Amino acid sequence: MAKLNTPTLEVKNLKKSFLVGKEAIPVLKELNLKVGFGEFVVILGPSGCGKSTLLNTILGLEQPTEGQVLVRGKDIYTMDEDGRATFRRQKFGVVYQQPNWVRSLNVIENVAFPLNIAGVSHGEAMKRARNILYLFKFDNYAKYYPMELSGGQQQKLSMCRALVSNPWIIMADEPTGNLDTVTAEDLMYDLKVLNSESKRTIVMVTHNPAYERYATKLVYMEDGKIKRIMQREKPMEVKQEDVVDLTEEVF
Ligand SMILES: Nc1ncnc2c1ncn2[C@@H]1O[C@H](COP(=O)(O)OP(=O)(O)OP(=O)(O)O)[C@@H](O)[C@H]1O
Ligand SMILES: [Mg+2]
Is the CB of 216 within 6 Å of ligand 1? Predict the structure, then answer.
């Protein structure tokens, strides 16, 4: 059982090389990062510096060459691939640059979909999906199909879908990459509300320095290394009831 002050996420001496032909190319070069409860981490760095590789390693998708990824004290690579897949489904919500939905399902059915897969009953899944659409003021679009939505709305749908399982950590890789400035700000605002009110920890990659202001912690990467970490705000104080919250439904 993790203690109250256990970091939500910890990356320890993380190295990752890819084998290209016979040569091992180092992509992550001994990274160390601690993320406290309720932090909003923004990762910046030039293209190719290893940001997505870092996110994928944290998600349990890329076995590190050396080092560890701890989620609330649990070393995720001590689990086998199936165990990691279940853990990822329960504890992480992932938002990518490309919206992610099923074309033949409407908005609310799409949001309920991850819960259907996880074996939650249809009624309960639809109830939780409706709650989250409501939270993001998106309930008016419940009956729309993805192709009837704008790019920003499709991204909002992807976000609702990523959040419906009530994950501990939201991982977002360039979530605003394909959106215009105004729509992107809306999405950032939604993420910030989720962070401050629902106390979800967020780790987001972006190329846009304008979003530095949303961060509690800024991480600057360069050439596979963390060049600088700037703590902008103290992490939230963790209370026992918050830890209980993390295991219960908040939506
Ligand atoms: N599966 C792979 N096999 C070999 N090399 C890879 C693999 N995945 C990533 N790389 C290499 O690792 C480096 C970092 O890639 P990564 O996608 O993490 O960069 P990034 O910082 O996310 O870039 P961008 O901002 O363009 O998305 C790149 O040089 C890339 O070629
Ligand atoms: Mg990337």
Answer: no
